[in-house]
Amino acid sequence: MQGKKFISPGAWFSMNYPSDWNEFEDGEGSFLFYNPDVWSGNFRISAFKGKAGYGKDAIRQELSENDSASLVKVGTLECAYSKEMFQEEGTYYTSHVWITGIDNIAFECSFTVPKGGSVQEAEDIIKTLEIRKEGEKYPAELIPVRLSEIFQINEGYEWVVSTVKQELKKDFQGIEEDLEKLQQVIDSGKIGSKKKEEWLAIGITVCIILTNEVEGMEWKTLIDGNREAPVLQYKDRTIDPMKLAWSKVKAGESCNVIEEYKSVIINH
């Protein structure tokens, strides 16, 4: 399956999912995906890390403890598969569950569909599951922006909006003319040179203004070694919020967000 790629936070595993699906908020440690326009089922995945061989042990344990589970093969992966029916608001659903594992990682995948719904999409996702080995250097990758980075983007922007309101008693709408307000806050010296998160929030906010003003800017998640961060992709360029402010401050340089913004605009 081509589709979109998901690399889990902490880069334990990767998988591909259909290009018309998105990631949605779920419980902690569980990742939820479905098609928001034409709902065909909810796909959930959780991963658990253990000692060597933990993945195979999880399959064996499920088969011994769950009488309704049977051993099936999905692609090259052995899975303990079971299903159960339930009713919600008068509609019947089937929840299909696969417990599988690779090396020291066990996966629990479920696909909840209307009764009689196909499990093909879920099996196609499971077939693409790969684990990422610790200590191995993987090439940097840009993947569709994950929820964890969307939260980071929103948090950074909200911090800037409230800081501008507090310091300047002015509203901040995320448009080009707000850059002057942002620069005033920077010039006031309020943000200490060691405050990485706050400088990152400023870089993120400049990028939000770019997405509001320039068509075709798209948020992505960058996975590069231990770094997992939101970046903007525009055509064949990557704009990194970290480099717009924090990298400059860290190097002892001054940060001028208006100039940074203009240089991106001119170069596009």
Can you summarize this structure?
The chain is of the alpha+beta class. The protein is built from eight helices and 14 strands.
Notes on the structure:
It is built from 8 helices and 14 strands. The protein has 268 residues and is of the alpha+beta class. A 7-stranded antiparallel β-sheet has the order 3-4-5-9-8-7-6. Strands 11-12-13-14 form a 4-stranded antiparallel β-sheet. It folds into 2 domains: 4-137, Protein Transport Mog1p, Chain A, CATH 3.40.1000.10; 143-267, Four Helix Bundle (Hemerythrin (Met), subunit A) (Up-down Bundle). Residues 178-261 form the DUF3806 domain. This is DUF3805 domain-containing protein. It holds the Pfam family DUF3805. InterPro entries: DUF3805 (IPR024315), DUF3806 (IPR024266). Residues 4-154 form the DUF3805 domain.
